[in-house]
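Tutorial handout. Part one gives the primary structure; part two gives the three-dimensional structure as tokens.
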Amino acid sequence: MIEIPGYSLLGRIHQPDDLRRMPAEELPHLAVEVRRFLIETLGRIGGHFAANLGTVELSLALHRCFDTPHDRLVWDVGHQAYPHKILTGRRARLETIRRLGGLHPFCSREESDYDCFGVGHSSTSISAAAGMSIAARIKNEKRRSVAIIGDGGMTAGMAFEALNHAGHRKLDMLVVYNDNDMSISENVGALRDRSARLLHRLGLTAPHLLRMPQDADAEDNPSHIEEPAALFRTLGCRYHGPVDGHDLNALTSALDAVKDLPGVTLLHVITVKGKGFEAAEADPIKYHGVTQFDPVTGQFPARKPGPRPSYTQVFGQWLCEAAAQDPRVVAVTPAMREGSGLVEFSRRFPERYHDVGIAEQHAVTLCAGLACEGLRPVCAIYSTFLQRAYDQLIHDVALQNLPVLFAIDRGGLVGADGATHHGAFDLSYLRCIPNLVVMAPSDENECRRMLATGLAIDQPSAVRYPRGNGLGLPLEQNLHELPLGKGRIVREAHGRRQPRVTFLAFGALVQVALDAAEILDAVVADMRFVKPLDHELILEQANASDLIVTLEDNVRLGGAGSGVNEVLVAQHHTVPVLNLGLPDAFVTHGTREELLELVGLDTQGVLRAVRKRLRSKDLDQQRSASRLG
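Part two.
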């Protein structure tokens, strides 16, 4: 036994077996210690916070009642699974979470046998647990599968697709609906409204539920007590609840009662996001993900406003300006109001703001419908989440050549959220789509110009920008549209040093190219457009250069550099080309700066790669001269 100072019970928990041997009367005190450990640890290091405070009792009850890891617990998204990590042998490493070489930010199969499914995106848990239940049936194994979904996960169609199938096949599985009335923002949707009314009638109203829409007829109609239970029963699920998710006795009793029932059972559990920390309960949006804070007061260190706004802020400001000038502008987001910079827009233009919940496919096709009627929809979405709506992007928007502008945030390496959230593939999966214009800004003014260009053209367009701050440039107010498919030279070679190197750089890595070019005395072109590419500029520089270096914050395979190669091959050009970008591998978590260095896309990494290629080129020339001699 290893005692932790100040934690008389938590030091005894190394694996769930320890928890299962603990006397029941000690569990409430253990919950207090787990919650305090989370508050103190995340106060020092930051991370996902409010959602984890809400699942402390639920995590204890699940590991208490189920034989994990033999029984499968599938956590949806995983940003609420820190208590699960603490209880499954990873408490001592929680300080390292989201850091390079540390614990994964979400659940990961490579990290622990207790993480039976890797997550990071929402609403996958029921499908995965259904697959595990089918596998147990086929293999004739006695094991139970549990999906824990909530924090907005029930707004996604995928969750209901899985319930519909599982109910049809009468799979033996449990779905724990962790209902905290929140996503990252407030939860949305008709199911949320009905659930709120039900809980209000039953006296289980959490602070967030007080904001529910008022509907006198619904309040007076006792039949609404049956909702949302009737919906789940229609899908073939046995419904139990609601249960207070912070009452360990009630939770364990409910889980014991339903865990061996045949077929699909849904247990409706009510939790409070931020439970046990007053500031987080009062403002779960602010405390969803945190930097360092005072674990007593909840206050964050005072920070002077920096001179460099983030790209997200630049987009949000531009969108408000555009909407004020053009009544056709409409904003759509899949549950990412804060993350995508739409808070001010939602306040100023509530009738033109649509949060559709965690429903990326619906968001994109909704934009297509808006565009059909002459509006100018702007879909604000993270790169990694747009992957979930790829068919809708192709079939519903691009095929019909509809003027939808995709404001794609978190392009490239995002940092601590890791492989599930890096926008590593967008330039590759976007540039192959007909009719779509794809732009990547190198600074905040370029971002504004590109957004204005995308809004003005009568076809689909995408502006892909990184997480983090711009360069601190004064923002231009008089925006002009960019000529489509035209890049610009941002640095000329000042001497006559040979060999001549030219960087064709895309997006945020233009700045890395400029830094490397100062040392190499190289030419730098800010390509601006990934599609259409500037063929004239590419061929002009190829004719004048001894080495072309393409640079992008995207996988090399099929990316912008591949597009440059295609242009040169089509013209039978033989200039040597070095394509620099992300590797053909999933990149881990860490700070953006650490990861750029790890993959060789920082200034020193680029210099090493260019010099190595130049040495190889010199050797090739020497060999050719020797053969000719």
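Part three, for discussion. The chain has 24 helices and 19 strands. The domain at 488-628 is CATH 3.40.50.920 (Rossmann fold).
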